[in-house]
Amino acid sequence: MFQGASALNLDSKGRMSVPAKHRDALLVQGEGPITLTKHPDGCLLLFPRPEWETFMARVAKLPMDAHWWRRIFLGNAAEMDLDSAGRVLVSPELRAAAGLEKEVILLGMGSHLELWDAATYAAKEQTAIAQGMLEVLKQFNF
User: Fold this and answer.
1) Is 62 helix (H, G, I), strand (E, B) or coil?
2) Which CATH number fits the domain that encloses residue 59?
3) Over 80: is that where the pLDDT of 27 sits?
4) Which domain holds residue 53?
């Protein structure tokens, strides 16, 4: 299970050092490469192999009128391996799609991770907070 936020930097080649807590979880679940793909909110999704296969199967079953969503999620997927230093290369295409340059945020989301441009994430988080709590959350006990 992935949780927590990590402020990271991409190096000049577009590599990101995966924090030890996430790297260990990826290696425990890792039965193959890590998969990165686009998300329409402007971030990248990062999946360990078993979770990617589950997600991919769900997306593949979407109805015909969701073919653009299959293209977004499956057509943009890239498999990457962690290198010996625990880094993952984010392809130029995916970096461009998410506006990733240097400062990034890696968020644990349970079954997967999200990779955000740090400034974009901060702005979207502030917008969400400013809009107020959703009705469904008002009924939630913390």
Assistant:
1) coil
2) 3.40.1550.20
3) no
4) 2-138
